[in-house]
Amino acid sequence: xxxxxxxxxxxxxxxxxxxxxxxxxxxxxxxxxxxxxxxxxxxxxxxxxxxxxxxxxxxxxxxxxxxxxxxxxxxxxxxxxxxxxxxxxxxxxxxxxxxxxxxxxxxxxxxxxxxxxxxxxxxxxxxxxxxxxxxxxxxxxxxxxxxxxxxxxxxxxxxxxxxxxxxxxxxxxxxxxxxxxxxxxxxxxxxxxxxxxxxxxxxxxxxxxxxxxxxxxxxxxxxxxxxxxxxxxxxxxxxxxxxxxxxxxxxxxxxxxxxxxxxxxxxxxxxxxxxxxxxxxxxxxxxxxxxxxxxxxxxxxxxxxxxxxxxxxxxxxxxxxxxxxxxxxxxxxxxxxxxxxxxxxxxxxxxxxxxxxxxxxxxxxxxxxxxxxxxxxxxxxxxxxxxxxxxxxxxxxxxxxxxxxxxxxxxxxxxxxxxxxxxxxxxxxxxxxxxxxxxxxxxxxxxxxxxxxxxxxxxxxxx
Length: 463
Known about the structure:
14% of the residues lie in helices and 34% in strands. By secondary structure, it is α+β, with helices and mostly antiparallel strands.
């Protein structure tokens, strides 16, 4: 009898052309099947038969050998009947004192601005830091990704904007201001433009190539903080002041095209645009979060905690725009409220006794990343339950041990040559294309050279 080959080496040899994520998943499933088979053979799991394990293993291999679709692969494995909003804390990310965070357009990388001035880039699939960008000397106030994910913009209380090359880990451009920069955002399409909101100064449109600063608002009556954000396509800029006035400004001419006001004239703390560009979310000091139609600027709904009447630290929309989330501003509570667009409170997530600094919803999946006042990033996700029947239609979960009656021909010796011929015929019929990359319907364009993952370089051991 030949000795069985090790699972990992066999899989690597056969599927070495696959990307690391798919190969790792296949190795994990293969090893799990081997462990279950060994336990069943020694009598530890009598209700699991080798036949069912082989069916599960064969189904896993066939699914992973299918035509690859890169970022779409994991989306197709999600349960369509599962909850589309988070329910529990799945993981914690801790590397420095986190103050703000932002996902790239694909949701594979998470940029975190820290209190010590560092910007840490996390690989969100492996939950490990891949880049440490050092340059700021004061806390980071905001981080923003370019459209293709290869550039990153960071603002800080040291009155500077840094424009980073994420792959190389180097700083490309530095823009200096007179006062600390409260917020900065990259243009949705043009990687050379961004908006910056300095403290007590009007927001400016910055050209990162030439360093030119064009004031978005020509004059301010008093020293107040003005918030600003780009529209979905980057054609317009939304600005809001301390009197509740929201202006829509054209990017090309920097002229105001329309103005509307928040009810009661409350000071606007933040503006958020949904991923589909249809909704505008306004967080104001009157403890009410308002949802507007981005085209008609008509108020659709208002959200608030009627009982406690609390302020909101950060608000944003879900990846599909169906839900509105608000993070409590109380220092001793890490509570996240999730409302439907109709105004109904769907879920309240209760975390540890730590305040919220920032939160953001994953661009593709029902996942929320929230920064606490202790500098820890909590990852909220749905409560996943294992369902083995999804791997094979004839696989059944048994509550009690049952006696299994084997078929007469189940363990018959099969001629190896005939089996090899059948495998060769099947392989010739089922051609696997690993070179073609299909377009993802979630995004409007896939012809860009987007950055999915960062290459990891091992550090040498100290001598």
